[in-house]
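Dear colleague,

Thank you for sharing your sequence with our group. We've completed the structure prediction you requested, and as agreed, I am returning the results in plain text so they can be pasted directly into your records. Please verify that the sequence below matches your submission; if there's any discrepancy, let me know and we will rerun it promptly.
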Amino acid sequence: MRFVIVTGMSGSGKSTAMKMLEDAGFYCVDNLPVRLVEKFMELLIQPGGELSKVALGLDARSEGGIGELEQILDRLKGNEYQAEVLFLDAGDETLIRRYKETRRIHPLSQGGRVEDGVRRERELFEAIKGKATYVIDTSNLLTREFKEELERIFVRGEDYNNLMITVLSFGFKYGIPTDADLVFDVRFLPNPFYFEEMRHQTGNDESVRNYVMQFEEAEVFLQKLEDMLQFLIPNYIKEGKYNLVIAVGCTGGRHRSVTLANALYERMKGKGDYGIKLLHRDITR
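Please find the predicted structure tokens below.
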């Protein structure tokens, strides 16, 4: 029997995950008190049981027992129960924004500020996150992409990539992305904007791409950046980093940065133990 515990930060997508697992044939139980987890597991493994896939959702409303979950997971492992833990996370700014957009009350804010609830919850789940089988950061994932990641793990049974990399193009005139981990400035390259025939095109267009990539500096930049990332990424994974945003910027975020971000993505995809996605923040501005 496959037994998955779904938990993590409130607002990071637990409800979406539970619905997706249910659609995938899992028998789902949400918000069961932590102290009943072991008893629930015992009932599931009774001879003649018909359930082969079960997902159990636990969140901050189980605060009274979350502190015991770490010990329960150890005991389940000791009893050779194959319990997997899916921990869902997102950056504090993302969680706060989601709560403000939906006007919901954070379960641990106690009627106060959302920020305080997020901080308290992160402290509460710190040990559990460290024991998780899978950690997915949903900060930069669309709902469709999040569901695809879950399907890849729990339906298709593909290898899980702990690190999700986002290659992001942007324009400096609109500000550096607040969630960027690594920022690279490609304004040293000649700007296609000054050519009338390319001004209203983007780095997704062949003429702009060919113009930018004709310069030796563009190829040298990509090679050096790829070499550095090949060194950094395994060390990020070793240190437990789950989300890496590589931001490539030019003046307006439509020509040079898009071209170089596309090229970097093509060089990196499918080459390592990580997931990767490509975004162009300012391409339509």
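Summary note from our side: The chain has a mean pLDDT of 88.

Kind regards,
the structure core
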